[in-house]
Amino acid sequence: MGEVFLEANGLYKTYGSGQGQVRALNGVSMQIFDGELMVILGSSGSGKSTLLNMLGGMDKPDKGSIMVDGQDLCRLRDKGLTRYRKEKVGFVFQSFNLITELSAYENVSMTADKAADPHIAEKMLELVGLGHKKDKYPTQLSGGEQQRVSIARALAKNAKMLLCDEPTGALDYETGKQILIELEKLSRVHGQTVVIVTHTREIGRMADRVIHVRNGKIIETEINEEPIPAERIEW
Ligand code: ADP
Ligand code: MG
């Protein structure tokens, strides 16, 4: 495994107040290593999305620290957090979050790091097997294709870390599997750091490490010495 990319310490988060209070995170500490394929596993309501949003600088904990490159995300102002999200993080959501008025190509190119490569949007769409559909609009694409556009969009940013919140949740089994194979390829072939949140235990078998979350706490960290290729996982 690579060097530590991110280190979270003692994260707490409570939503609401009084009787309606929910403790979404109850003291979470973890590390993410450069280039690892990590699965965060837990049932619905266990705090997975809350944790992922914090790792991605989309939300702040009530208490705790998240160190990246020597700075604490939790102490950054909005401007610093925006820069962190922009430069270091790609997001893939269950609901794809594509802009319906824009073509696949436009959805990808709007976040692309053009300074790095002016043809990056096209290349990333080709990488996920959608080069021939770059001018289609989201409504003209299947769920799996839309999710692949959202992966291409995340990649075009050339972000250090890809955070995926239930990326197969809205897809049928076969398509979901293709997306997992795609994410695995990014990690194994391209060395990208990939974090996948899921409630499906079997998906954990493809990861280098599985973080088990329950009631806002990490109850176990599992290391897979020999991860199983996504292609061979069944659930
Ligand atoms: P998961 O992604 O594992 O399903 P979440 O992180 O979304 O879990 O939620 C953890 C807990 O926090 C749940 O009980 C959920 O209802 C609550 N929660 C999450 N976000 C909010 C919010 N914005 N306002 C109030 N409660 C929330
Ligand atoms: Mg969630």
CATH class: Alpha Beta
Q: Total helix count?
A: 6
Overall form? globular
Widest beta sheet: strand line-up: 6-7-8-3-9-10
Helical amount among residues, as a percent range?
Answer: 25-40%
Structural class: alpha/beta
User: Would you give the CATH topology?
Assistant: Rossmann fold
Q: Domain count, please report it.
A: 1
Q: Which architecture per CATH?
A: 3-Layer(aba) Sandwich
Q: How many strands, what sense, and barrel or not for the largest sheet?
A: 6 strands, mixed
What is the CA-atom radius of gyration, in angstroms? 17 Å
Provide the β-strand percentage band: 25-35%
Properties at a glance:
about 240 residues; alpha/beta; Rossmann fold; six-stranded mixed β-sheet; four-stranded antiparallel β-sheet; 10 strands; globular; binds magnesium ion
Task: Write a compact overview of the structure shown.
By secondary structure, the protein is an alpha/beta fold. The protein has 6 helices and 10 strands; from the N terminus they run βββαββαβαααβαβββ. The longest helix has 16 residues, at 173-188.
Question: Your description of this structure?
Answer:
The protein is an alpha/beta fold and 235 residues long. It has a single domain, classed as Rossmann fold (3-Layer(aba) Sandwich), CATH 3.40.50. The protein is built from six helices and ten strands. It has helices at residues 48-55, 78-88, 104-109, 120-127, 143-156, 173-188; strands spanning 4-15, 22-33, 37-41, 63-68, 71-72, 89-93, 161-165, 193-198, 209-214, 217-223. The strands form two sheets. Strands 6-7-8-3-9-10 form a six-stranded mixed beta sheet, with helices on both faces. A four-stranded antiparallel beta sheet has the order 2-1-4-5, with helices on one face. The chain binds adenosine-5'-diphosphate and magnesium ion. Residues 15-16, 22, 24, 42, 44-50 line the site of adenosine-5'-diphosphate.
